[in-house]
Amino acid sequence: MKPTEFVKVNTQFWGDHLKSVSDHLPGSHAGELPGQLLYPRMMVLTETPDWNIVELVGVSREYRSLEVRRQKSTSIEEYFGLGDGSPVLSLPGENIVKDATVATETARRDLVDWFPGIEKILGTEHVGPGDQLLRFTPGNYSTFDRVLLAHSAGRSVRLHWTFFALAIHRSEPAGKYLDFLRNFANAAPHLDPVGTVSAPRGDEGLKSEAFTSTYLAHGLQNSTPETFLAEHENILLAAYDATRLIPRPSLEGPDGTITPDFILERADGTHIVGDLALPLREPGKKHRRSATVRESAAQLATYAGYFDDAENRAFVQTKYGVEVSEPRRLLIVGSHQPVTADDLTATSAEIVDYDTTLRLYLAAKS
Fold this sequence. Notes:
The protein has helices at residues 3-28, 76-80, 105-114, 174-187, 209-212, 225-239, 293-306, 310-320, 341-345, 354-365, and strands spanning 36-38, 42-47, 51-57, 67-72, 87-91, 95-104, 124-128, 132-136, 141-153, 156-169, 197-199, 242-247, 251-253, 256-258, 262-266, 271-277, 328-333, 350-353. By secondary structure, it is of the alpha/beta class. Strands 2, 3, 4, 6, 7, 9, 10, 12, 15, 16, 17 and 18 form a 12-stranded mixed β-sheet that branches. It has a two-stranded antiparallel ribbon with strand order 1-11. Helix 9 (341-345) links the parallel strand 17 and strand 18.
């Protein structure tokens, strides 16, 4: 199937399917649904030399026509951020991974301690000592329906919750692929349609502007880190089990002043120093951020190293009232931003995209 055919089939199918769901279920079956239905906001279509990949990203309280983003990747391994080596999960033939977690043993050990509420979304667990999460073979359909992918390398962890993703070898014909999508959607429970997720009813956080446009390639052109943090404070606090957010702290030291985007103080007394690798506008400037994952991770290492000095820790205690020692490092990236195996290997941080942050928030609030 040519990439142009792949785009056409997915645009038609997902538009028709999600519109039908939104026209039917919230009205006629509102009382039977387990919660409020949330819909994807963007469809990312990725072309590699051998594979076509579709992923639904973003979360919206209402169905809107999906925005379409096309991109290329050198390989399916690059798209999923895999390294060479033995896989946690091999994917021969047709594969459906649904309401599940695929994780390396190292990443899985820390999930519950680091991310509150995550046990509610782990589902069926596939955990192993492999060096990479997944191995694909030609000719298959590999579907990931609400799946958490947790990959690790050294001291780095990459957390990515997939709303829906499907990888198909380019040798597969368009007609067969469309039949697969229709059969897959028809086999799903009527009250739990493919491409949606249920959220708690009555959650005020779902009504905020911060939640209505969350796919981070849209609506951020005029947002600065300060405004973004002000709008998303409750989401970040709940997602990371924090009691306080310090936005853009000025960390003064003998070598000058550095400014991470935020410090989170967690309920257990530990701290997270974090940066936003998002297309946000810098205050007073017209350009937007364009740092790579590795550049952002290097900055996080500088921020974390600041707290190795006792005088620096005392300064922060006096200025902000927090005792920070050996903070975790968190990089929040765009929901469709690829993180390669090389990125992960060269980084000593937790890399979490914003859709996953939202999913953690919903799990913590449910």
